[in-house]
Amino acid sequence: MEIKDIKANQGKIDLIADVVSKDQPRTFEKFGKAGRVCNVKLRDKSGDVVLTLWNDDVESVKLGDKIHVQNGWCSEYKGERQLSAGKFGKIAVVGSAANQVMSNDPAMVDRQRKAAGKKDGDFFDDDDDGDEDGDDPEVIEEEEFVE
């Protein structure tokens, strides 16, 4: 099933999508028991939908994960579709969030370099060929230049 096919008040939803944003978890108390709730935005090639995570699912689902919602339920809140696992559904992480963080913050780059065992002045070398920038430049001999 794709996100574009989900309708409000629909059950038996089976969907695989990426978590593209995650709100801060909130706590609540109901019938004398404390719980946690959090909204995430899911995306597939057809669109976006909000998924509400409850209790244990709040910690198990992370930004960047690919998740599988099985036997989910879609309701409507303030005119927007809102998906949840409901009583009988299940949410499973089928792909983990990438460990790579992209940043132009020099302090973060420095921490990543040190964590990888690099010293100041060393660069990351992703392809292990010895060049600093990770690509393989073509070597051109002096005779090949045409003026």
Query: Main sheet?
Result: 5 strands, mixed, barrel
Kindly provide the name of the CATH class of the domain at 3-95: Mainly Beta
SSE topology string: EEEEHEEEH
In the CATH hierarchy, the third-tier topology of the domain at 3-95 is known as OB fold (Dihydrolipoamide Acetyltransferase, E2P)
Strand order in space, largest sheet? 1-3-4-6-5
| C-alpha Rg (nearest Å) | 23 Å
How helical, in percent, are the residues? 10-25%
SSE-based structural type: mainly beta
Uncertain segments: 124-134
User: In DSSP terms, counting alpha (H) and pi (I) runs of 4 or more, how many helices?
Assistant: 2
The overall average pLDDT, rounded, is 81
Rough outline: globular
What is the second-level CATH architecture of the domain at 3-95? Beta Barrel
Residues in β-strands, percent: 35-45%
Q: How far apart, in Å, are the first and last alpha carbons?
A: 60 Å
Q: CATH superfamily name of the domain at 3-95? A: Nucleic acid-binding proteins
Number of DSSP-assigned strands: 7
Describe the fold and architecture.
The protein is globular, with a radius of gyration of 23 Å. The chain is mostly beta strands. The chain is 10% helix and 41% strand. The protein has helices at residues 56-60, 106-115; strands spanning 10-22, 26-30, 33-44, 47-54, 66-77, 80-84, 90-95. It has a 5-stranded mixed barrel with strand order 1-3-4-6-5. It has a domain at 3-95: OB fold (Dihydrolipoamide Acetyltransferase, E2P), CATH 2.40.50. It is built from 2 helices and 7 strands. Strand 3 (33-44) and strand 4 (47-54) form a beta hairpin.
